[in-house]
Amino acid sequence: MSRPVVNFGRNLRFTPRRLYAPGTERELLDVLERHRDGQVRVVGAGHSWSRAIESGDALVDMRRFGHVRIHRGEGGASVTVGAGCRIKHLLAALNAQGLTLPSVGLITEQTVAGAISTGTHGSGRHSLSHYVASLRIAGYGEGGERAEVREVSGGAELRAARCGLGCLGVIVDLTLPCVPQYRVRESSMPCDTVEEVLALRERAPLQQFYLIPQLWGYYAQNRAVSDGAGTSLSAPLYRLYWLLNIDVGLHVGVKLFAAVLRSPRLVRFLYRRILPAMIFPRWVVTDRSDRMLVMEHELFRHLEMEVFVPESRLAAAAEYVKEVLQAADGSRGELSGAFRRDLADEGLLGALERVRGTYLHHYPICFRRVLADDTLISMSAGTDEAWYAISLITYVEPREPFYGVARFLAASMARLFGARLHWGKWFPLGAAEVREAYPGLDEFREVCAQFDPRGVFRNAYVTEVLGLPAPAESLEAV
Ligand SMILES: Cc1cc2nc3c(=O)[nH]c(=O)nc-3n(C[C@H](O)[C@H](O)[C@H](O)COP(=O)(O)OP(=O)(O)OC[C@H]3O[C@@H](n4cnc5c(N)ncnc54)[C@H](O)[C@@H]3O)c2cc1C
Question: Which of 62, 116, 123, 228 fits 129 for a cystine, CB–CB 3.0-4.6 Å?
Fold first, then answer.
């Protein structure tokens, strides 16, 4: 037995039978040979809240595969990077060459393979998975017998491997295109409605925005690629302001008022009085992309669920989330007529009543736009239209009241809005809701069966949510 493994959110704890950190491909293949009749899962930085990394048998940590090799060709620059390289180390190596990634999320602590395997995204671009040009994956060859590394660079295999939840095997390294380093211009302003926010997007395609709980108004963080190469003189001051006021100050306030004092009045005071005074709409700042697009969101432990809705349903979905959270904190009676009717049609009114008055939402709800991905099952795959990711975060423990409301939102939004959940975040949906939502799922399963006929790379989470045959069933089929 090895030591227990605990994820970032501390909502997942398990003890794999063996924990490996191979340093060479030969060592990795030996691990696979040894566990070919068992189970093998990979852990990246452990930043997922879903049960994606869980293994009762072998858990592989690829941290020693951190190489970064930059290539420059006629078609532009690309980088081949070891699976266990942290995004922050990759960004630093690229920046030293005047390059960066086509897309980054809010933090850079994740490993590259971990980030792409769950469809990690920022705002205004595709998820990072979409851009993956090729991968090298360690798995079992024909018939699932001998361990070997295979290259994946096209077709359904590539589209599956770009966001594969560890189901195809162990990613050894992967190649991504790079873009020249660029600057981002940012300003923040309050808005009353989603329509007002979206009207600003044309001039700020990398925009993300927040629904502020208890104020129930919006803040748009308007971001655009800057034409020039210059950085604002006030950029260092702006970074310090973000660090002290938002990354630390806001979070200390949330922790203190919501988690320690548990005071709805103080949470309301935070969002109605203090936060508005901390935002300066006239402050327009330009800085390097990998500084501007990220924040120190990992400083305070929390748990997140993220719901994706098609762009065409955004306004209704935003209103729905607001009304449900208001019902949950007891500040609202009935939901609007149309929502009430839809919930009644789906037989969900009783479920709403069960969460009424049980939970006070205490963290800004972030909305990010993710372009349609060319993958089989990342959250914005399989459609032409873009998707909006709506993030629900809690800093309060015990988390049961949040779980109740989040579970209700996930289930009802799957039915009402065709919503999908981020694979790496808290994941309360089952196979039925997932099957409905992903047109590429059958093809994904076929690729899994081909790469891993014995089901060695499956755990209960992927078996359950992706509807894959459990390992024992796979063995019968071989
Ligand atoms: C504070 C915080 C902020 C976040 N911000 C964002 C954000 O802005 N946008 C966003 O989309 N997500 C965000 N996330 C979620 C995070 O990006 C994903 O959960 C990501 O998958 C975590 O990467 P990881 O390296 O920790 O991988 P893990 O959580 O360790 O693993 C994730 C999955 O990848 C698989 N995996 C890892 N390495 C390999 C490999 N070598 N081969 C095969 N499979 C592998 C694992 O088996 C598992 O299925 C955030 C998470 C946290 C904690």
Answer: 116
